[in-house]
Write a structure and sequence with these properties.
Largest sheet: 4 strands, antiparallel
Low-confidence stretches: 1-20, 43-70
CATH class of one domain: Alpha Beta
Helix content: 40-55%
CATH architecture of one domain: 2-Layer Sandwich
Strand content: 5-15%
CATH topology of one domain: Alpha-Beta Plaits
Number of helices: 11
Length: 352
């Protein structure tokens, strides 16, 4: 099945095995946690203890498989994942002993999509390797050695993890027990130049995207550039001269005049035009002085208004404090309750 043969139903396990192979039949029955029975209903192993739930080296399969209405007992977190028998068209994979330590693997290379597979049967063909490993995902290429190993490249990185799940499984071609038809798979990460190249390309692309995102972010927060100042010409000079006489457009015009002078537009031919524009700018000084005086007058009036308002507030405060002091005198004080006296004292301190 597509997820590494974990979703096998009861029927597919029992019916997929040839009846001429009692050992495989016993293993499958035992994986279901049942006492192995022959077709006639006789126990194949008279000393099988169902309470143990497993024979030596063969773990029970997960009872939550489709077709089994059994609620599994809670699994402690430190227990290894239970692996099952996997049936393919031309071969069968038997799980490793769960009590053995997990197979050692090398450090995962960056962007790894290629695995090394060792321990293949001598008679294992490329077709059989494909049959076993295409369950882990789309296979891009298989490079098989004359020895009993090969390299398999997958389409995606996560498929490598599925392939590593098969490390330690014993493989048997058909129902043969010939040494050339059996082997113990060893699956490990492989260093491949194609994987590294693709990973580096991907990293560079991510770096480019990050730079682009940062640039957009900086652009968003950068203040807008001022509009470009037009180049000097006789026509533009007459337009600016008119704007200098208009109070509402004076600020824009004076900035243009300043830029032209700094650019070096003043020469013998244009000097008179510039002199008249400077003269227009000078005539605005009287207006600006008058505006400044008006603002200062407004400021003085505002200060006087503030002083009057403040003195009125202070007079009211003093009157309230005077009320508290009068209430604190003997002839009035004796008639208040203890709580009222306390409140009056607190209010008096706050007001002062």
């Amino acid at each position: 099945s597509a997820d590494g043969g974990r979703n096998l139903s009861l029927d597919s396990i029992l019916m997929g095995l040839p009846m001429s192979d009692p050992a495989a039949w016993t293993t499958a029955m035992n994986n279901l946690g049942m006492a192995p029975m022959g077709m006639t209903g006789q126990p194949l192993l008279p000393d099988f203890d169902p309470a143990l739930g497993m024979m030596t080296g063969i773990p029970p399969i997960n009872p939550m498989m489709p077709g089994l209405g059994i609620v599994p007992p809670p699994i402690p977190p430190d227990m290894p994942a239970v692996k099952e028998i996997i049936h393919c068209k031309s071969c069968t994979l038997f799980p490793p002993n769960p009590h053995l330590p997990p197979p050692a693997t090398r450090e995962r290379p960056p962007g790894c999509k290629t695995v090394f597979v060792g321990g293949l049967p001598e008679n294992g063909t490329e077709q059989i390797i494909m049959e076993v490993f295409e369950q882990c995902g789309e296979v891009i290429a298989i490079r098989k050695s004359k020895k009993n190993f090969c390299h398999i490249r997958f389409a995606e990185e996560f498929m490598v993890d599925k392939a590593l799940y098969l490390s330690g499984y014993r493989i048997r071609l058909g129902s043969s027990t010939d040494k050339k038809d059996t082997g113990r798979l060893h699956v490990d990460f492989a260093q491949a130049r194609d994987d590294l190249y693709e990973w580096e390309c991907k990293q560079r692309m991510l770096a480019r995207e990050e730079r682009h995102r940062r640039r957009l972010e900086e652009e968003r927060f950068r203040p807008p550039s001022p509009p470009p100042v037009v180049h000097y010409s006789d026509h533009e000079c007459s337009v600016v001269a008119e704007k200098l006489k208009d109070d509402t457009k004076f600020l824009e015009a004076i900035q243009t005049l300043l830029t032209w002078i700094e650019r070096g537009e003043v020469n013998r031919r244009t000097a008179n035009n510039f002199y008249s524009m400077i003269q227009s700018a000078n005539s605005h000084i009287r207006r600006l002085v008058n505006e400044k005086a008006a603002h200062e007058k407004e400021m003085e009036e505002a200060k006087e208004k503030f002083k009057l308002a403040l003195s009125g507030i202070l007079v009211q405060f003093e009157q309230i404090v005077a009320v508290y002091h009068s209430a604190s005198k003997q002839k009035a004080w004796d008639h208040f309750t203890k709580a009222q006296r306390k409140n009056i004292s607190v209010w008096c301190k706050q007001a002062e």
